């Protein structure tokens, strides 16, 4: 029986896809982990762990390098929550413009003022005037699953849209509305946008990407939306810019104490992906990925190991080997098998940056002696007998 542990609520529509070869448990020694935003960095990773399925996009809550070194494949669910986030970002654009939150708060103060309320409303509403988004320029940083949807939706609402993504995928480029203009540099986007929305992952090279230097390039009174991760904006730069009015409003899905105390900030409690549709999409995708990896050794949508698919094993045995992407690995693995007179009938070797994966179907039963021999090869970090 394969053991799966969930570290956050995972929609039942996903969990139900596990066959009766799987059980959901609260043990330490599990084969798979499913999670959403749970921070795994301080967690001990058991040697039994084969797969981590992030039901969502961002993987900054998972110790990817540590997982790679232990041969643990980390999956995410690209695009599965993108529409949910896009819809909240569109709400964010309007919240950034029309002072809706301030106005609603003020309207609440009129409670119990009886027949005076309509008069007070008409007298007070001028304090909450805010601009339309139509005709304004939105700069979208990161044109992946979410950025593309945001860019297209903003364009459909009459905005001019500038997009910046030096690593844009062919698929995203095809999805992008032809009216969206490419910004060749981030500086160009900063200088020309009335609204800026960030849709990049939090990584070493994106951390603090909104800082004093590039805020100084922005238009006065720019409105900034961050539905990606708190760490993309430098705290003190943000605080200064909000205080001076350089940034007129900051809308974020990532509240923390310091930002909650800043002026002109609207905080949403990380609700971007919190729709039933997105929770189900993510759970279904994550469960299918983890299940196919544990049962068949196939890899789809991993962030640390390569895509690899040999379908269901019809041979006598299948071996899955996670290893470093270094010379002689394939020859060392096949030599070890040949030395035991094991005939390979199908195999795939794929790599992704520093890590590689070899899936081999053979005509013989695999003994623990062979597994130990493979494990002893320098560079191999995990060996699994799938069948
Ligand atoms: N608020 C929420 O609940 C959610 C937040 N997110 C956040 O949004 C981020 C983006 O999500 P997706 O669009 O689904 O991911 P994605 O992987 O489809 O897109 C990310 C895009 O950013 C681009 N990129 C990477 N580095 C860049 C850089 N330095 N400059 C410009 N572009 C860069 C990539 O080329 C890619 O096209 C996630 O990493 C996550 O942090 C995602 C889902 C839900
Ligand atoms: O699962 C969630 O609610 C968080 C979604 C998210 O932030 C992501 O997918 O990166």
From TrEMBL:
Pfam families: 2-Hacid_dh, 2-Hacid_dh_C. Signal peptide: none annotated. Its EC number is 1.1.1.399, 1.1.1.95. The keyword NAD applies. Residues 318-387 form the ACT domain. One of its GO terms (molecular function) is phosphoglycerate dehydrogenase activity. Pathway: Amino-acid biosynthesis; L-serine biosynthesis; L-serine from 3-phospho-D-glycerate: step 1/3. Keywords: NAD, Oxidoreductase. PROSITE patterns: ACT, D_2_HYDROXYACID_DH_1. It catalyses: (R)-2-hydroxyglutarate + NAD(+) = 2-oxoglutarate + NADH + H(+); (2R)-3-phosphoglycerate + NAD(+) = 3-phosphooxypyruvate + NADH + H(+). The keyword Cytoplasm does not apply. It comes from the Bacteria. Catalyzes the reversible oxidation of 3-phospho-D-glycerate to 3-phosphonooxypyruvate, the first step of the phosphorylated L-serine biosynthesis pathway. Also catalyzes the reversible oxidation of 2-hydroxyglutarate to 2-oxoglutarate. PANTHER family: FORMATE DEHYDROGENASE 1 (PTHR42938), HYDROXYPYRUVATE REDUCTASE (PTHR42938:SF47). Belongs to the D-isomer specific 2-hydroxyacid dehydrogenase family. This is D-3-phosphoglycerate dehydrogenase. It comes from Vallitalea longa.
